[in-house]
Amino acid sequence: MPAKRKYPDELRERAVRMVFEIREQTGIRTGSISRVADQLGINREAVRNWVRQAEVDDGKRPGTSAADAQRIAELERENRELRRANEILKAASAFFARELDPRLPR
């Protein structure tokens, strides 16, 4: 179960949009995150992380997009479940092989 988010998604989207708008209007990248964070009363690092992830998702920055990260997590979870099931089947097959072997005393 994912952790509860401190800020609603609408606020995140608004903050990221504001940073991109300020950068577009002024042509300056520095200070935009601090300005938006102060205006909205949000931690600067939180806004910085949101902007970075938005840039990755938009293809403006290299990295793993949010959709890819979610898919990777799902595949890893499925892989763990399949490995557990495989171990159970191996143990069961070894048990039944001993039970069905006519050479072994019962």
Short synopsis of the structure:
This protein is an all-alpha fold and 106 residues long. Helix content is 73%, strand content 0%.
The helix/strand class is mainly alpha
SSE order: HHHH
**In terms of per-residue confidence, which ranges show pLDDT below 50 for 5 or more consecutive residues?**
none
Considering DSSP H and I runs of 4 or more, what fraction of the residues is helical?
over 70%
Name the overall outline.
rod-shaped
Describe the structure.
InterPro entries: Homeodomain-like_sf, Transposase_8, WH-like_DNA-bd_sf. Pfam families: HTH_Tnp_1. This is Transposase. The protein contains 4 helices and no strands. With 106 residues, it is mainly alpha-helical.
Task: Describe the secondary-structure layout.
Layout: H1 9-26, H2 32-40, H3 44-58, H4 66-100
Helix pairs in contact: 1-2, 1-3, 2-3
Coiled coil: 65-92
Keywords: Coiled coil
Protein name: Transposase
Question: Which properties best describe this structure?
Answer:
4 helices; 106 residues; mainly alpha
